[in-house]
Amino acid sequence: MSFYQATGLWFLLAASIPVIIHLLNRRRHKTVPWAAMQFLLKATRESRGKKKWRHYLILAARTLALSCLAFAVARPMVGGWLGWGAGRIDTVVLLLDRSPSMELMVEGATASKRALALDRVRDALKSMDATKLVLIDSASMSPQEVPSPDRLAELTSTRASDAAASLPLMVQRAAEYLLASQAGKAELWILSDLQASNWQVDDERWSSAVATLQTVSIPPTVRLLSSTQGNAQNVSLQLLGSQRIGKELVLDLQVQRSDDGSASLRLPLSISHMGAVTSETLEVSGQQMRFQKRIGVGEEKSQGYGLLSLPADANVRDHRVHFSYTAAQPIKTLVVGESGESTKYLAAAAAPQGYANQRAEVISPRDFDSKAGQLESYAAVLWSTNFPAAEKSQALQVYLEQGGQLLFFPPKQQEQGSFLGVAWATVDTAPSGKFFLLEDWRRDDGLLRDTIHGQPLLGQSLRAIKKQVVEKGEQGLTTLATWDDGTPFLSRLVRERGTAWFFSSLPDYTWSNLGDAHLLLPSVQRAVMEGASRFDAALLTEVPRAEWWASGAPLPVRVDAEDDPDADPAFRSGVYRINDRVVARNVAAAEHDPEIVAAENVAKLFGDVRFRRFEENATAAGESEQRELWTWFLLAMLGFLLLEAVLCLPKVLHSSHTVGSPVAS
Amino acid sequence: MSESLFDHDLLARLGAIPLEARLPMLGNVAGRHRSPHRGSSVEFAEYRKYVPGDDTRRLDWKAYARSDRYYIKEFEADTNLRAYFVIDHSASMAFGDRGMPKYQYASRIVANLAYLLVNQGDAVGLSVCRESLHREIPPRRRPAHLSLIQQTLQELKPMGETGLVEALHQIAEKISQRAVVVILSDLFCDSSGWEEALQHLRYRKHDVCVFHLMDPQEIAFQFDRPHRFVDLEDQTSLVVEPQLIAEEYQQALRDFLLRVKQSCHRVQADYQLVTTDAPLEPLLRDFLLHRLPKKGTR
């Protein structure tokens, strides 16, 4: 409940008048001599019953009647999200989360969460004529003064966007605005669905933003209109990655359902490639399903773009993904090792026959210096010799940080060198007639993970006579597969965008059967593909927020013919030309994460700043609609006055004692 | 000079109505009241058998002629009575809000009834009680005795607590002969001992009359704002809102009046509730008329 004329609440003091009169009357009593004291004492003892309560009820009725009058004068409003104590506000800074997740229409609603929230704000601000409204939206991030609440829905900066929101950054901007503008009594109104990826509760910027809010001369109140309801009918489509392999474009996709996924769902998947539209049926089982889509893109020098989409559902912004591709580039792998059986196996695994666009260059460790400066063009580097010396090691580290994949194999002998703190132990040979067996490996992560169809690799077929494990490593070295004696077979070290892998056996018949292709081929191919994906990554981006523009990047030009009038053209997904490159921009991956921040955690973020939260209930609009209540208070006042009148009516005396007549005995 | 308690106009109008005793009285001179003894009046009482020693002059010879037995013819003896007025002079009797103070009203009743009694040849005495029996004036039938009674009533001021019950017991013990005992009080005393005191008086064959005096405000209890009520007898005070307790007060008062009335009934005492705003003449006239013997009862 809020009050339009909060000063009228001062009239509440008048409610104490009946009590004061009562107390004064008790003090201003008249003293009379009295003879029949015994009846007075008895009556006083017996009157502590309903009559006393009746008297107090009369007093309460008078007090409540005056209180109701005071409330009516203050023009109370309920049903809105302003809550108690809104009073007069000079400035409202509206933080609008217009990320794609806010476009969800909850079940029973007729508009998106964003549209409903804007309506709610417009209604709330209608009764606040003198309040200045400043909008900070999650995409543009710039404060914008809004002349009238009615204009809110018309602004481009309140329309849907495909950019993810960053609440700590928005609050920081709001705090900076309030600090700079000296906005008087101000309030921050946040419209959000509490999506965890937007709120980033662990972000360090929260503390500085809240601290800035507290330094404002009149610390503002923060009001959050949250809308956390979901919709079980929503299906979203996400593009995880794309890679051109020869004449095909391989798209890694993910479908996510908001229902329980107990029944499989058949959906038409529409594919638009350079204007040609085809359709196929996609069967979705479970809540989340990953799949690959291969699209024939013709000649290796061709460029193009396209769109994949599912039917529109509860959220119109999360069921389409754009892609683009350029001319096919050969995928090169550098194999560094002495010539021998293992090196041949490694080269064959990196560029198997039939993979025309994959090439493997085999060089001796001594020739590595000539390649050290050109490593960025290689998808992966397979290193099967001693760790490189310092200057060579530096080149490999740079390669790693740029996103390269570096696979190390045992050098066959004990060596003193190390790479990123990792060193080789001595060669370990199995007892005669026995083998080292691969016992355990991660099936959900790493190079030995299951196939995309869920089938495991044949790890149990690996038998080794010799092994040479990494014996120490810096923090971050993760073991992904172990031998039966517990020593690591495969370890991983992530450095910046790249990954270094350490195998503890060789595809050499004197070492193991690793070269039988059960494990080596998929492992190396996965590393090569991962390394090659960075060449295509630049063609696949997320819709950026406004700071991207401020970074001086060139303005993009929309290439595809998709028209989306409901969205802000500056922040919508699509295919754009930037510096002669065709780039596909999609909804931020974080927007597909359905995790919601707990309300209590949100309240903690604001520390000592006054914080109030109102949960939007889109299906019960009547309850949350703001309306004035003064007529009800006037009626209540009349009711209390009527009650007081009824209680004050004198009771009819049923009998009286007759005096004066003599009584005969 | 105090105003006379006697209302001569009233007395002139009531003079024709005698104050009769309901019970036989024992007086020392002849009077208009029945005596328990047989005497020489003209009113026949009964026959009884002659026993040796009886005065032969009282033999009824006509009866002897009819029955051949000796009978003595007896006649009623008429005598005067002694009336004791017991007036409560405790502080509570000083209360008078809408009427005159209760003790003043009671004094007027005493004075005027005493005049009527002396006028018909009866003796009148006065007992004033406060915490106990405070003053006594023995009964006399001389008219000059009325001045003493009036003077006493006018001199005394109500004070102290009520000791009516103890006083009545003392009076019952002190009065040796049958008498009319007229009690005038607001009866704000120990209600349990009150009936015992009346029974004590009745046991001594006294004719008891009770004038129960109440101020109209004590009955109506009509106040419009909080009051501090100060007890006239012990000065304790109580602040109350009369509107809140009026109903309970009146209920307690009704219970009290009923108890008093019933206790009087049980001991066959005359009971009359008197409010101090009531005129005196109807009160006394009704009282006197009510005590007249009905036809054929004597």
Any overview of this molecule?
The complex is a heterodimer of chains A (665) and B (298). Helix content of chain A is 25%, strand content 28%. Chain A is of the alpha/beta class. Chain A folds into 4 domains: 2-27 and 39-78 and 629-648, no CATH class; 91-231 and 594-625, Rossmann fold; 235-312 and 319-326 and 539-586, Immunoglobulin-like; 331-532, Rossmann fold (3-Layer(aba) Sandwich). Chain A has a 9-stranded mixed sheet with strand order 17-16-18-19-29-28-27-23-24, with helices on both faces. In chain A, strand 27 and strand 28 (488-495) form a beta hairpin. The longest helix of chain A is centred in the first third of the chain and has 24 residues, at 50-73. Chain B is an alpha/beta fold and 298 residues long. Chain B folds into 2 domains: 8-21 and 80-291, 3-Layer(aba) Sandwich (Rossmann fold), CATH 3.40.50; 33-79, no CATH class. Chain B has helices spanning 8-14, 61-67, 102-119, 144-155, 164-174, 191-203, 216-220, 242-266, 280-291; strands at 33-49, 71-79, 82-88, 123-129, 133-140, 180-185, 207-214, 227-231, 237-240, 270-275. In chain B, strands 5-4-3-6-7-10 form a 6-stranded mixed sheet, with helices on both faces. In chain B, helix 6 links the parallel strand 6 (180-185) and strand 7. The longest helix of chain B has 25 residues, at 242-266. The two termini of chain B are 45 Å apart. Classes of the chains: A alpha/beta (665), B alpha/beta (298). Strand 2 of chain A pairs parallel with strand 8 of chain B.
